[in-house]
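Standup notes
- DV: blocked on the single-chain target, sequence here:
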Amino acid sequence: MTAYALQRLLQVPLVLLIVYAGSVLLVATTPGDPLATGERELTPEARRAKEIKYNYDQPWFERYFYTWPIKRLLIDRDLPAHRYEDWTVPEILQASLPVSLQLGLFAFCIALTCGTAVGILSAARRNTWVDYASVALAMVGVSLPPFVVGAALLFVFGLWLGVLPVGGWGRLEQIILPSITLSLPFMAYIARLTRAGMLDVVDQDYIRTARAKGVSRWRVLLVHAFKNAFLPVLSYLGPAAAAILTGSFVVEKIFNVPGMGVHIVESISNRDQTVILATVLTYSAFLILFNLLVDLAYGFIDPRIRLRG
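- DV (later): unblocked, structure below
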């Protein structure tokens, strides 16, 4: 497993370079003038000043593959953002990424805990009203868009009952509603995957053997069956964790959370190339990291994979 982990870590720079090159190709070929303000036409002097400020006076290869990602983003940390005159890209990431990570961590814990619990309970009570209710709730969670769930939670708990704040950031109670809204679709997927995995496992020979030995039903489900039934859920957790932890634009917009999702969408609509490339690299790094952790976790959960490796 150590050799496999080192091999995967050595592949990370290459994968990030490929993702970055593809992003540069899309950004460079997108129609529109990234230096235009949208308010009035720039004078030749103002355009020249902006070209120098954002390194558009340099050759494209040096601008995209040295000056922006290495020198000005990682070393000098003074890479400017097109639409935020007083902010640099590292400052934007430093201010917004921790907020999205905090929100995503709460949402991830809620989705994983509640999703697996609902899936196990649904499989244990197969073909009963508990099972039907769990499947129905999972379908609702997958089908409802976040802005509908967020608006409903705001109305019920924020305006009608008045027990939770309707927005803002900085206090513990302000994270409850957005984290529930963000976790609901992931919770529904995890519940469905857990239920399907448990139903595939509970009829296998080693489960029947454990029951024949007198092991209690819930111990069989939680100790013997759940470990193997969790493997499909584990595969889903990699991309799900990356999507949750980098934030959701809709959720952050509804609850006025100053996270990274807002900057991702606004940078695309504003053709802010520096912020687009920085956020794409950040999201890609999280996706690669969590997929690596999932692959390593497979070896610890399933001994067959560990021994084969």
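- Follow-up: The two ends are 7 Å apart (CA to CA).
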